[in-house]
Batch of 4 targets.
Target 1
Amino acid sequence: TNPEHSGSDLAEPYLGGLLASLGLNVHYHRARKDTLYYRDETGREVAVLDLVGGYGSTVLGHNHPALVAHARQLLDQGVPVHAQFSRHPYANDLAQRVNAILRREFGDVGEYSAIFANSGAEAVEIAVKHAELDRVAKVADLMAEIDGNIEKARAALAGGARVPADETLDRLTVARAAPPDAVLDAVTRANAERAAAAPVFLAPEGSFHGKLVGSVQLTHNAGFRTPFQSLAARCRFVPVREPDALAEAIDAERGTLFDVAVDGDAVRVVERDLPVICAFILEPVQGEAGIRPFDRETVERVQRVCAAVDLPIIVDEVQSGMGRTGTFFASSQVGLLGDYYTLAKSLGGGIAKAAMTLVRKSRYRDEFELVHSSTFAKDAFSTLIAARTVDLLEADGGAVYALAAERGARLLAMLNGLRDEFPTVVADVRGVGLMIGMEFRDQSGSAAGFIAEQARDGLLGYALSGYLLRAHALRVLPTASATDTLRLEPSVFITDGEIDRVEAGLRALLTALRDGDEAAIAPG
Ligand code: F0G
């Protein structure tokens, strides 16, 4: 049934109009593998080849039969979907399996505890909250230690010690001739203010980590982020591919606390590092920035620089994880070892909403479990579907990973061929496994007026997607923050015939763009 209401559209009403203007307003009523079906005006069912793949949530395709059967079975047997604050052995089972994969891909890296969530942004916010809990506790320990030192200093001063006048007092903004007690009070006052300062996060330019209150501050796209910047901690975006950029950013954000040290008959004011930077977060393959993988050299430098200041690394595998790139963790291909990993999207097998955050045991704080929870997280349905999804990825010695690498290479080779054929239209083709982007050259001067206009509005990728859907029954969408790049994230089951269909559709598109053929490309 397809109810048509007489009233106005109330469900995200603006989006409906935008979809219509781009020719993307179809309602899919059925899905299987890499195909979505809608009915046209005549009621005829149209099969669309889906390369969006649920924005990365359907690495095993839509409605994978084993997952559908499992879901049905769970509901038939009356599994208690919601039984919060009871034992969840299946959640432990999932955490153990993912830990075993971590060991296989990264070596003996120790255990990671798992916290469960409902969405990618929530998994990111769990990592952020945990890192902040850890940071705040470290600051508190530091403050307690300094308080102890201040008491020792008072005792030393009472015994005749003095405070030598040096430039640290200038930084403390007390007069060099100030009485010793005033110096100690100034230390306490300055530290209270410095320790209470908001933390800062570091992330590569182009990062996308979600759109909730906290995570959107880690998302570089100014349109998504800036209206909400007063709501959460700040992130500094770093051009990490430049060799010195991260070290410079860390230096620029560095903070200190004052401490006092008794040294013979002198009480010296000294400065100590204050952990102001909460975490460094990155995607191993940037998704929304236009599908941009990080190379091994950059990743090694990032890890070295972060380790030097004990800065935890959050590896966001929400989009790149779950086998899409040819390994379970995309980060393992470049040796990027995280203190935190986030998983979501395909974790739910394209059926459930499931997410998890892995936290390295050496940093893990048990008390986090008492301060973070969600009604829906770790529910039996999603967690068991996630476990079955992991099983399917791991089956037959990891056949799915091999398939992702092989299918991805084939798709990439085809796209590279098109790039060579249409150098004036295609700027670049890049990706890893089944996470691929095709970047278009600027079309704002196109002879096709519709294309030029959409390009000037930053909607080029959406306009191209509308054309591919209408004219070739191909579903493609641009990356969220680089709308000149079309993303291709089909399932591992995409066939040679389907890749040929993609090639034919794209060749027609590229030909029309090259020739500025308005009639071919503008909506009728
Ligand atoms: N992290 C990454 C790397 C993502 O790509 C996304 C979502 C999120 C976190 C947030 O996950 O949507 O479940 O809250 N990327 C989407 C996309 C929106 O367009 O690919 P979420």
Target 2
Amino acid sequence: MEYGIVRHDWKHAEVKALFEMPFNDLLFYAASVHRKNFKQNEVQISTLLSIKTGACPEDCKYCPQSGHYKTDLERERLMEVEKVVNQAKLAKEKGATRFCMGAAWSDPKDRDMPYIEKMVKEVSALGLETCMTLGKLDNEKAHALRNAGLDYYNHNLDTSPEYYEQIITTRTYADRLNTIDHVRDAGMKVCSGGIVGMGEQAADRYGLLMQLANLPKQPESVPINMLVKVAGTPLEDVEDLDHFEFIRTIAVARIMMPESYVRLSAGRTAMNEQMQSMCFFAGANSIFYGDKLLTTENPEADADMNLLKKLGMKPETREDYSDEAYEASLNSAIADKATSELFYEAK
Ligand code: SAM
Ligand code: DTB
Ligand code: SF4
């Protein structure tokens, strides 16, 4: 079978067969696809900031920010533009290339838009890629964000269509697909993935990946979150997902979406270094970087840099198209290609 090509017609039986491959064969396959499409030792790094925290009207059972559950979270109103820009500067100094701003909203309201648009413009002006996750978007708001210069919009499908109603009742799966359509129509890049470890069946993990891969255009960025269990949420005591199953999910996402960045997202504080490095081998090539996700802990930035160093990996930088840098990147691409061709012949 030819591999490493983008397909939009994945069937349940094929996905199941991938998940059920011997573990090392699956990892070898995923790593081969990864090397074919990316520089295998580079990781894209994004920093998150919660720009509006808590009291969300939606009832997502995993979420500490839902107003339906009693968690220890302190709610905060929409952050001032200047504070957001200061946080973005710090993230850039620490090496992030993308700044992702999240709001605990069902959707942004008209009154919020001028502030949101200003944030996008000012963060872009720092030379960072911009991403927002603000809930549902209609066509008009998607265009407004694009016109402000927003590069990516994050909107997760979260799980399979079949399991979805066990997790969220206030917004439908179709609502989510519509938002993704609007983001695409407006010309922004799509960041969409899901959460595993929410008590779903293996078939729901297949279903989530099939939904993402079979979209008319696959998301440029696919965050795979492992549930962070937060006290007070309905999923606080759900059974842990087996770590090998998590690594398999990364590997299958890499195979099904060969040209997408697969992000090892929430849940890394519960993973040791060896597990994270297996996820990188399985094709994860993006992480959230910085001590905090939106409201929960993430590994310390320095610990992440140390891990990358130990693995001989490095953060991806935004390309600088000065003649010298262009030539250097061209040479390294040629060298990488030569290595990956050797790798294929070895198979
Ligand atoms: N309110 C917006 C929305 O839901 O579209 C944006 C923010 S929301 C917190 C972004 C994503 O974070 C969710 O879609 C979910 O996939 C992820 N998330 C939230 N709580 C999580 C948790 N406890 N563990 C893992 N992922 C989580
Ligand atoms: C995504 O898929 N994961 C991020 C981001 N997109 C917005 C959020 C993870 C949130 C984890 C729980 C929290 O910190 O509140
Ligand atoms: Fe609200 Fe987003 Fe949390 Fe759902 S995931 S409760 S929409 S903040």
Target 3
Amino acid sequence: LEAVFQAKRLAGKRVLVTAGPTFEPIDPVRGITNLSSGKMGYAIAQAAWEAGAHVTLVSGPTALDQPYGVQRQAVQTAQQMHDAVMAQVASHDIFIAVAAVADWRVANASDQKIKKTTDSDTPQLQFAQNPDILASVAALPQAPYCVGFAAESENLLEYGAAKRLKKNIPLLVGNIGHNTFGKDENELVLFDANGHQALAKADKQTLARQLVDEIAARV
Ligand code: CTP
Ligand code: CA
């Protein structure tokens, strides 16, 4: 019901959101992923729709239902997420990168299941760096308004401000990884050119609505 009474502050805007973890295969039955549940990104996609936006969600593997009104494309790897975002971003006004994208993929992934051979023989994984989706979007000549997320484990104020500058984006949202991954509540710190501002601990849907208001006020 709250959605009905909320001001449609993003009416006419097109918003692209990434959410969830990525999954990087080791072989056809194994892979590397992370503890992101997708809840924060899905809550933001829902809140943007409530605010009147047309919302596209590119999601890594999660156990979550498609948010009402939102168009979802499911992907597995960081490369697939990158390709899906780059194919669609041109028609969007706002890009919100909430996904916990794997920084590295397995360079020598096996086409067949790796078999356990002898007691001493363990697989040797090599890694290659994945494309930085947010940096790729921010570098486009007609870049949308870009919002990044940072899950840190320490020094949030210092790392958050530095990461916003490094990624060259107007708004970066910081949180503490072990306080958010898989949880229903979170607390956020917003970093922009004017400094930082906290959004106090609340459930993710409440925080998502507050964040969407903050974004709408800036675009
Ligand atoms: N991101 C992305 N593509 C990547 C890695 C990160 O789009 N390959 C986005 C995330 O969705 C997030 C932001 O970049 O919005 C910051 O991610 P983070 O992992 O905190 O930053 P990194 O630059 O990868 O730095 P770190 O070494 O701390 O992981
Ligand atoms: Ca990273």
Target 4
Amino acid sequence: TKYEMIIVSTDGPVGIIRLNRPDALNALCRQLTTEVLQALKAFDTDRQIGAIVITGSDRAFAAGADIKEMYQKKLSDILNEDVLNWASEISSIRKPIIAAVNGYAFGGGCELAMMCDIIYAGEKAVFGQPEINLGVIPGAGGTQRLVKAVGKSKAMEICLTGNVNLRAQEAYAAGLVSGVYPVDKVFSHAVSVAKKISQQSQPAIAMIKSAINECKSPLHILTIEHY
Ligand code: HXC
């Protein structure tokens, strides 16, 4: 398949997707999200592949939904075209996906990272949900996956202020990412973890992924135990 906005490769059993729309800091236009989904599905059905790594450039993982595309749409277009369909489809990928994030991961870019199963951050990674500054809500996980990752108060703060200043170390302290690495090491670290995962039993890996994603937030479990 010919892709224009991503670069797809493999390293042994690891499928690699590099977002490659540098002029727009990997803003998630329809073509880009379509290509990412297509590549993910191809890796998911490829028996040689055990895990997948998604990365961007040093400057940007992804600076969000494509604002220019977003502004052209009316609410009726958004509903008719099911513009966030790609996001729900990514949740159906059975193989583990690791995000190696450098630079900006804002809005839909932060949400794309959170759709992945593990996030590693480069030292210069910065996360945020600036949707509120555009008068919209973080519609692809910012109000759901982010709460699971960092808890309610921090998720509220991030989404309500629209601040784009959650740097790698703070993201690590908050639990959003699993580790922080030098800019030039984060990708290779992600690939090495993906290789390790690829050696494990594929059915067990798929079941673990599915079970962990079914887990409600710890707060929810606490509530049930409490009553
Ligand atoms: C379209 C974008 C873009 C975006 C950057 N670009 N972000 N194009 N959509 N989200 C384009 C710019 O227009 C510019 O193109 C080029 O990328 C470089 O960007 P600069 O702004 O010149 O770079 P810099 O000064 O380094 O600033 C980087 C930045 C800033 C801080 C990341 O670009 C920025 O604030 N971007 C918007 C971030 C944002 O609000 N994202 C959330 C979107 S809402 P030209 O051609 O002009 O040079 C969202 C909703 C999610 O994500 C809903 C679910 C999917």
